[in-house]
Specification:
7 helices, 13% helix, alpha+beta, five-stranded mixed sheet, 23 strands
Length: 541
């Protein structure tokens, strides 16, 4: 039996966690450039669960913004800028992705910070060095009139999903059904790819329709600066987010106004990622802060690849040169490389060595004979030599291809590592407030069965579910059910602990890394009383 004090501590921890409420939050769209400094593009006050928007430490790579709360003992939170510095033009090519990167003159991003707090803001570059003075957020907002917010939380405090917000541009008010059909097509395409297929239930696909005055996107000139013809040019249309082809003289680089997109996205402010679908059938798209794609059937491949960058943090695996791209190394002397690329050639030290068969040559020949094997293939991260990828063909090298095993594993690990849940916590395999009994302290009777249940966030494969009574393992099963149920019949009076533990032993993660996957628990305190104590408690005879 557990002591009353230890069990009450568990109960208090659970109830305090559940009591966190949504709080007014400053939703500020900002731009940063060395020439113009930090400027406000728009400002709204929205309701978000406390801590939903907070990174507790600087990101591992890329630029970021630090926010110091001077009213709260100098607590610091962070906003990553790793995807804001560049616009990616990545499209179908002959042997691999036809990729180009454009450095943005200004970086557009969103701060979600506690409302009306004394916040200090400072910008750090991709080398994580200070590049701005310290700004006071109150001073930046002093002469800005807040926009009226009609925001709504999807999932609210019990939100336990990655919120992927699908937006549209170039759809008139009469074309909302078309937008929904196009969004359905993108979702359906995404869920044909592993690892997205196995973890489809972990993503909430939210939609936000914004009507434009006219359909389509701008087609500025024929041919574009890259020499690619555009039979629709010149064509200019009035759309909500100013969608245009031929950005940076690349005909297939379809972009929208980031500040306008982020401002509109405040309507569903707890988004974790955004994709904008442009109502134009000409092939095109872009990556960066968010993905932009046209309705062309092949353009969804751009989004699926870009999500590998923006969500999972994967590197490109093609070797088209990109001068000046920040270097990485897994052999020391700088930032480590992304999960799917390396400069390490020693077979025992390759970070995905546990997936490499002992008979596979290192480096691995670029030959079809090794198509289905994990190895060390030269050519990745914009370098034709000295940088290696795990598999000969992968989605991070060739649009439309499957993700390799290393990339799939990285996605699963990121799902559990990120703070995507409603209160700034990791996703939980035990759905919030799904436990039955709901409260952690319950009463039972000797010799009378008590039933305990939780609802689980279920991938397409089974979860490992364990039930403990007073820390003794009673049941250990794999389950594909959404409701996990356990019945316990006490044999003596006193306090009994009943605990459920759920863990994902994912087939997309090598068993050698299972320890990196968290487990999730809920614990009840069962106060067992004698049967006659309850029957005669009110003097019944």
């Amino acid at each position: 039996m557990k002591s009353m004090s230890s069990l009450m501590a568990v109960f208090l921890m659970i109830t305090m966690s559940a009591s966190v409420l949504a709080v007014p939050t400053d939703y500020v769209v900002l731009s940063w450039s060395e020439n113009s400094g930090l400027q406000v593009k728009s400002y709204q006050v929205v309701d978000l669960p406390e801590n939903k928007y907070q990174l507790k430490s600087p990101p591992d790579r890329g630029g970021y913004v630090s926010l110091i709360d001077n009213d709260n003992m100098g607590d610091t939170i962070y906003v990553s800028l790793k995807n804001e510095r560049l616009t990616r033009s990545e499209h179908h090519g002959h042997e691999h992705i036809d990729g180009k990167y454009i450095e943005n003159e200004e970086q557009i991003f969103v701060l979600k910070s506690p409302h009306n707090q004394n916040i200090s803001v400072q910008v750090f570059n991709e080398n994580q060095r200070k590049v701005s003075p310290v700004y006071r957020l109150k001073n930046l907002l002093e002469n800005v009139t807040p926009k009226t917010s009609n925001s709504k939380q999807v999932g609210g405090l019990l939100d336990n999903r990655v919120n992927l917000l699908i937006m549209g541009d170039g759809y008139t008010s009469a074309e909302e059904n078309s937008f929904n059909a196009d969004a359905d097509a993108v979702i359906d395409k995404m869920l044909t790819f592993e690892p997205y297929k196995s973890y489809g239930q972990f993503v909430r696909f939210n939609r936000l329709f914004t009507a434009s005055n006219e359909s389509g996107a701008d087609h500025p000139v024929d041919p574009c600066g890259d020499g690619v013809a555009d039979p629709l040019a010149p064509l200019f249309v009035d759309t909500g987010f100013d969608a245009t082809y031929c950005t940076a003289n690349i005909q297939r680089l379809l972009t929208v106004d980031s500040a306008k997109v982020f401002t509109a996205a405040a309507a569903i402010p707890n988004w974790d990622a955004i994709v904008v679908i442009v109502n134009d059938t000409t092939y095109g798209g872009a990556g960066g802060s968010f993905s932009t794609i046209s309705t062309n059937v092949a353009a969804a491949d751009v989004f699926i690849h870009e999500y590998g960058h923006s969500f999972t943090g994967l590197a490109d695996e093609y070797d088209t040169p990109f001068p000046g791209f920040p270097a990485c190394s897994d052999t020391g002397g700088g930032d480590s490389c992304e999960a799917n690329v390396t400069d390490e050639m020693n077979a025992a030290d390759i970070k995905w060595s546990y997936l490499i068969d002992g008979s596979t040559p290192i480096p691995t020949p670029d030959s079809g004979a090794f198509d289905n094997l994990i190895g060390l293939f030269e050519g990745a991260r914009y370098q034709s030599s000295g940088m290696y990828r795990p598999k000969r063909v992968c989605n991070m090298r060739t649009l439309g291809s499957e993700f390799c095993e290393v990339c799939q594993e990285a996605y699963v690990l990121e799902l559990y590592a990120g703070n995507f849940a409603g209160q700034g916590q990791p996703l939980s395999l035990i759905e919030p407030a799904s436990q039955d009994p709901l409260i952690a302290s319950v009463t039972g009777m000797v010799s009378v069965p008590s039933t305990f249940k939780v609802k689980t966030l279920q991938p397409t494969h089974d979860l490992n579910v364990r039930w403990f009574v007073d820390d003794i393992l009673i049941s250990d099963i794999t389950s594909s059910e959404v409701i996990q149920e356990f019945e316990y019949t006490p044999t003596a009076e006193g306090l009994v602990s009943v605990r459920v533990r759920v863990k994902d032993r994912s087939p997309l993660v090598d068993s050698s890394r299972f320890a990196e996957l968290p487990f999730f628990e809920f614990e009840w305190t069962l106060n067992v009383q004698a049967l006659n104590d309850l029957i005669f408690a009110d003097g019944f005879e």
